[in-house]
Every structure is written in C-alpha cells, then in structure tokens.
C-alpha cells in the first residue's frame, strides 16, 4: 500500500507540474495576444485614443494576479486549510476577474487574430443570435447566473473534494472562477459600448451578491463540518467557519463598494445634465430691472 500511495502521489505531482506549465503557456499566450492587439490598435488610432493606458495596466495586473494565485505562496497556503483555499478563490473572483474585465480585451484580442479568423469572428458577431447574446442586458443575466452557478457548484462538498484530489479538475475549477468573474464584471467595468446602464448594473451586482452571501452564511453558521475532515484544517469547524467569513465579508464589501461607486457616478451624471432629477433646487432667475416680483405672478 505505501508503494501504491507513493506512486499515486508521484503521478499527481507530474500532472500538477504539467498543468502548471500549461497554465503559464496559456496565460503567456493570452497576454501576448492582448499586447499585440493593443499595439496594432494604438498604431492605427493613437495611444490611448480607444483603449486608455489604465485599461492595459489593469489587464496586465489581472494576468499577474492569476499567476500569483495559482503558483505562489497563496497556492501553498491553500493546500493546508479550507480557509487558505477560500482566500485563493476570493482573489480570483474579486481581484483577477474584475481587473481582466476592466482591460476591455475583446477588441485587442480580435485584432491579434489572423485575418481569416478575424473575418469569421466578424461574421459571427453580426449574426442575429450573437447580436442578441451580446446585448448588455442579456450578457448581465447570463453573467449573474454563471457566477452564482460556478460559486455554488464548486463549493459543494463532492466537487470540492474531487477538485482537491485531481489537479486537472482543480485547474478547471479555477478557470471557471476567473471566467465567471470576468463575464460578470465586463458589463460593469468593460468598454462603455458594452456597459450596462447604471441602474441595471446596481441590480446585477446586488442580485449576484445575495447568493454568495447565503453560501458564506451557510459555511459560517453550520453547527458541524460540511466537508470531510481530510480537506479541513486541524480544527475542522473553525476552519470551515473562517472560510465562510472569508467568502462572506470580502464579497459583500467589494460588491457594495462597486455598487455605491456606480450609483454615485450615476447621480453625479444626472446632476450635471438635469439637476432637478436628483432633487436639487433650480437656480433662481433674477427679475428684469423695473419689474417687481409680484408683477410676474
């Protein structure tokens, strides 16, 4: 039995190493494609004309965060406890995903494709079904549903244990987190032409936060461990409760901060355009000389 265990551990180590290399290659290819598209876009229209520099910096930072979460000290911490693993998940969901979404990568990545593939993508985007799916409201509904589904499914005990035991499933889990978060935040932080109206963005973020808070509450207030003891820390119940808090508090704080920011920016925009719509008094118009106030009543 010890020999079989050592062989299994060796096989898992080899699989994990291959997946780490594959992750690095995938991320490098994504970053290279984005960089090439940005270079071509800036060469055509001028630096920052269509894609500001801060969006490029956001995308690059998001790529680095993905690498740091999956192949750094945080990955080692995630192997020791459920709370450490939850921290890794929150970094992918609340840091990497929003940063990648803020990068507005659709146009740069399409410009980086070969001409033939670019033409096929253009035809695909112009198809009626694709146009319907690309509407901001449709994208928002799909994004909210995908984020909720990804969060709940991968934190159920059975899928969670399988992800810990199989490096390939673990990589798929993290890819789902990044993709779901990217899709969720794209209508909020992405390019203005694909962005949701502010009221709809507020509803999207609030509706997405509630299921995540519910899951965090379940983990925090469960009277006994939900997960097998082998995937929890030395104190299983305390580890599970801490993991629930790590999901609950950061998710609520991040989403509430984003929601308030979007809402306040919307109010300021209304104030600049129509002061009366936000309850501000209209400026008084002075009466012409020679007329009294009562003469105008």
From TrEMBL:
Residues 278-297 are annotated as: Disordered. GO terms for cellular component: plasma membrane. It is a multi-pass membrane protein. It is found in: Cell membrane. The chain crosses the membrane at residues 16-35, 47-69, 89-115, 136-156, 168-189, 201-222, 242-264. Keywords: Cell membrane, Membrane, Transmembrane, Transmembrane helix. The keyword Metal-binding does not apply. The keyword Membrane applies. This is Cytochrome c oxidase assembly protein.
């Amino acid at each position: 039995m010890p020999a079989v265990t050592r062989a299994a551990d060796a096989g898992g180590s080899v699989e994990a190493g291959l997946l780490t290399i594959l992750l690095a290659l995938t991320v490098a290819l994504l970053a290279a494609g984005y960089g090439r598209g940005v270079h071509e876009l800036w060469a055509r229209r001028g630096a920052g004309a269509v894609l500001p520099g801060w969006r490029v910096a956001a995308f690059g930072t998001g790529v680095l965060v993905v690498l740091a979460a999956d192949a750094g000290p945080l990955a080692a911490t995630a192997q020791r406890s459920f709370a450490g693993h939850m921290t890794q998940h929150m970094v992918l969901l609340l840091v990497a995903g929003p940063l990648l979404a803020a990068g507005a990568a659709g146009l740069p990545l399409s410009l980086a494709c070969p001409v033939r593939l670019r033409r096929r993508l253009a035809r695909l985007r112009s198809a009626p079904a694709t146009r319907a799916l690309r509407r901001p409201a449709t994208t928002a509904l799909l994004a909210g549903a995908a984020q909720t589904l990804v969060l709940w499914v991968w934190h159920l005990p059975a899928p969670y244990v399988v992800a810990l035991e199989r490096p390939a499933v673990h990589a798929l889990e993290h890819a789902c987190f990044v993709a779901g978060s990217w899709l969720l935040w794209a209508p909020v932080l992405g390019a203005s032409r694909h962005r949701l109206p502010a009221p709809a963005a507020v509803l999207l973020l609030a509706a997405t936060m509630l299921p995540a808070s519910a899951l965090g509450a379940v983990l925090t207030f469960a009277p006994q461990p939900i997960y097998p003891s082998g995937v929890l820390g030395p104190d299983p119940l305390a580890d599970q409760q801490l993991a629930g808090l790590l999901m609950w508090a950061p998710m609520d704080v991040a989403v509430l901060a984003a929601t308030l920011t979007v809402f306040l920016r919307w109010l300021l925009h209304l104030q600049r355009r129509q002061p009366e719509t936000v309850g501000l008094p209209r400026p008084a118009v002075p009466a012409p000389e020679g007329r009294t106030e009562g003469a105008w009543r």
